[in-house]
């Protein structure tokens, strides 16, 4: 509207100054609008979590500063079908990772009741995966994991239940997913661990952490997963 | 004659009052068991069996099968105290897992949680008190 008004008054010499002023105003307003549009875009983008470090690199003869984000390193575990699962199984997928064990009667049933909602929501979506690591490296054999997955009603390879050595799983949990896990003889089931659901993007970067025992947090995770998928659609 | 009538009236009113009091005493007792039972349920059972007794897929049986809870009512105390292993059929689905024992629970707490479960999630079986629990635990085969 503003712009059309200023154009209407353009032909007269006396209003030239005014026109220029209005044009500047218009420019200013459209700049503001663009900025507002930009900022609402960034609001919809999920943050990148974890440690980061700036690195200098040379692009087209110029030195630019780039940021290296914390990523999930290569791993190799055995899943419920006794197959090897590595980071390559999650190529081109965003995924949710968590830590549990099949005989756990504390938070795990609540977590997986909630994770089932995530599974149902993104079922058969080839861009989405779920990766549950058991922390009971002695008792949870692939056959135990298989029986657990079957009873939970999980088919296909979208939701992987994996086991590894104590060292590999515990280190990955604490150093890379930032989830605390530990053996504890005093705990009722023999382990203590946190119930975080960690959202990882296709570049293996951490994009969110959600309390897997809370329905509202898991609803937020589902919303955020959709936002994250859109991020890759734009590219 | 008139005095007699008044006396009869007085007696019947008192009897009604006493009955009413009994009734509310029993209701109060039920409410007490139910409320305690809810708290114990939330602390010891809800993780697996769910906040509305829905269970979890084929891992943990739901508590909404009213006929299972009725037919097995005398077993419930025993199951809670000593745990349960092996296949059972609930809501027409077979469950073959292991329920941990809650042997640290006092009889009165077991009675409370049974009162809660058998009067929630679509069940309506009334009060199950500590005397019921003691009797059922004595007959426990597990």
Q: Which strands sit side by side, in order, in the main sheet of chain B?
A: 1-2
How many DSSP-defined strands of chain A?
A: 11
Low-confidence stretches of chain A: 1-14
Mean pLDDT of chain A: 87
CATH class of the largest domain in chain A: Alpha Beta
**What is the CATH topology classification name of the largest domain in chain A?**
Glutaredoxin
Number of helices of chain A: 6
**What is the global morphology of chain B?**
elongated
Fourth-tier CATH superfamily name of chain B: Cytochrome c-like domain
What distance separates the N and C termini of chain B?
66 Å
Residue runs with pLDDT of under 50 for 5 or more positions of chain B: none
Strand order, main sheet of chain A: write it out. Answer: 4-3-7-6-5-10-11
Total number of domains of chain A: 2
Reported for the largest beta sheet of chain B, the result is: 2 strands, antiparallel
Oligomer: heterodimer
In total, how many domains does the architecture of chain B comprise? 1
State the name of the first-level CATH class of chain B.
Mainly Alpha
Class from secondary-structure proportions of chain A: alpha+beta
